[in-house]
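Thread: Modeling a multi-component assembly for a lab meeting

Hi all, long-time lurker, first post. My supervisor asked me to bring a structural picture of a complex we are working on to next week's group meeting, and I have zero experience with this. I have the sequence lines for every component (870 residues in total). Could someone generate the structure of the whole assembly? Inputs are pasted exactly as I received them:
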Amino acid sequence: MKEYITKTGSGNIAVDDTLLTKGIETTAGSKILSGFVPLFSADAVERAEKAGYTVAGKTNVGEFGLDLVGEFSYYNDGDEILHGAAAELIAKGEIKGALEVDLNGAPRRAAALSGTDFIKPTYGTVSRYGVIPCACSGEQVGAAAADAQETKKLLTAIAGHDGKDGTSLPAESYDYACGKEIAGMKVGVITQLFDTASEETKAVIKNYAEKLKALGIAVEDVSVEEISAAQSAWQILMAAETCNNVSRYDGVKFGYRTPNYKNIDELYIGSRTEGMNLLTKATVLYGSDVLSKGRYFTCYDKALKVRRVVADKFKELFKAYDALLVPACGKTEYKKYDIGKAFETVYEESAYTAVPNLIGIPAMVTGGVQLMADHFGENILFKIAESAEGTDK
Amino acid sequence: MKYEIVIGLETHVELATESKIFCSCGGHSNHGEPNDCVCPACCGMPGMLPVTNKHVVELAVMAGLMLNCEINRCTTFDKKSYYYPDLPCAYQITQWFHPICTNGLVEVETKNGISKIGIKQIHMEEDAGKLVHDDWSDTTLVDFNRTSVPLIEIVSRPDFRSAEEVLAYLEKLKSIFRFANISECEEGAMRCDVNISIRPEGSTELGVRTEIKNMSSLSSIERAIKYETARHMDALERQTEVLVQETRRWDDIKGKTFSMRNKETAADYRYFPDPNLMPIVIDDEWLAKIKADMPASPEEKAAEYRELGVSDKEIELLISKRNLCDLFDALRGKGCAVADIVSWILTECAGVLRKKGQVLDELRISADKLARIIAMTSSNEITRGAGRKILVAVLDNDVDPDKFCEENNLAAQGDESLINDVVKKVIAENEAAVKDYLGGKTKAFQALFGGCMKQLRGNGDPAIIRTQLENELAKLG
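Re: Modeling a multi-component assembly
Sure thing. I ran the full set together rather than chain by chain. Output:
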């Protein structure tokens, strides 16, 4: 697999290719953006640099970050066993950390498969300025590293208010220190997500739950009926927003332009047909459909209402639980598969990752499992992850 | 059969803000070279995010208040998707679900009386760019200067029954918006889509509607309405064609409308709320501040001036442009008399501008300086002629009135003995006029007065001349 698109020399963090880097070609894994060199860097990249991190290079992503872990990038060599580019470099110890955009769970799945850490923070805490946009209402820049402590350091560096992003929350910075004692915390395991996972994945979750119990955390099963509605709702919102956002790539202003056209319609259709892969096209079609006349109120508008219902449900859950423990993906290993199956495959896997994107809560992958907390509950997630990692050493 | 025309208007007005609606580029489209007023955001580059210009919201609220609308305290932006090369993101940010103002009313006056035109809604949106076709090389070029320039769209109810009402309404919007500095309403800054249908008089059902897109000149709008009305009547009366709901384009040279697209080929714009822009909440405090900053309407200003004794004709000239009213009010604030203000603005300033080939709209003068000129002339420190000279210098080079007066020896001649000599000389040299005056022709006095002023090169103190002239003439009588 081609891990680096561009090498800029030495450095200690990687930046995934859906984040703009000034002067370095940024393609979001798509042919349609080939040759696109941004005029400015993402706010998260600038903040990381200000905090002393240096960018080692860009890591490959699946086209627009829509796939499982990066298997459908235009710039992919394609390995038999799937893994995410940034997570793999961290696992090998080649870089200290990475900034990655989480819009449908790809960096979380990648971290789980590589055994590294990744946090998708609370929506609005990290600026989306400079994120190649897809699913604006739920995508966030997250931090990846080899352990919870390094992940926390990197997230601390990039989080904080940015006037260039209208959805950025007002706090200038975030302190992820946690005053709450580990012993006495309560963690719920969502049965709907546990039951559907593979036996290997179930074992990973059980094993992690034992670790938590050993730390004095109460672990119990909890049924959350809303999971499948949340999964559908995020699919609808994510696809609709993506459809709208990628419509700007028309071959006119930047990126790839088809050489074969005689008029403006052929220029649009040709550039987009040749420039985007089947998964992106399926997402665009699906998104276009749920926004169309006659479908808007039964699909898109309903998904917005489901978002509210799910948010309320999780508010309730977090009154009873400090965190929720679920798989980040259904299996512990994925093999190369045909792109014709990508839309359904990713949708199936998104059951595990959709809720944090849908309602903006933080989610952390550590030790092969996923922990979710209430809005601004990153400190709880870091505390649990650090404690559990401590028991490994 | 008698028919009735039913017209509804969608009017786009470019707002007079410093910057564009979602980025900090300068707001005005009609300046400079193509694409010199663009940034990565208004060019649609990925990664840029829109941030709402608060001034746009304030101007939209003001427009709503002036058109008697309800102001919606929570308003949101939506995305409208369609492909066109002048639209860099392939979507326009507009307001579809929750527009900022709704349910307004405007009264317009035509020769047939006053008609009430309902306003369905006013919403904020961004403008698109411009395509320029280069016939020489047979290419089409894109200019993004106008992209993201703030607009409000005022959607009327189908309440117009004649082209005259449409024109009166548009004139009224123009005067209100220019007056409140909401929009300059210059050429192209106000554009209309005209929805038109006809029906038998007395019918309550609407006929088949056609929409004529994107018209900016009032005369074209009038001609297009007349053309469309005739076309619809021909279709109904003489079955010349079957009317379909469609969008048409007006060709000003051919004087005809042409079909652009019909209902079947209409685009599905796939509106949805823009997740990048948080809902805008207009709380009591903000609304109160906007109301406090809102200037009086032209009608209110006219009533105020009428009260001060300004004539209707003068009022009409003054309220045609906000800068004149601001100047008027500033001069009042500095203690100038109403009659002096009116004559200095409408006679003297207008005269100087006319000589320069300019109109009153273009008057830019410091109220302090004009007030000083008025004070000097009304206290006879200088003559009106000298005042006029100073005015020219102020308008040309923005000079200091007192300094200019001193440097050019414009102070009124108040030397009584000198003036007395001149008066005697003029009386001696103008026997005919003296005779006329003594014979009862009082107008002759002006001629003698003018003669004296001429001898004093226009700088004589008019009050002293008048008294002395009267005294000397009395001696003869």
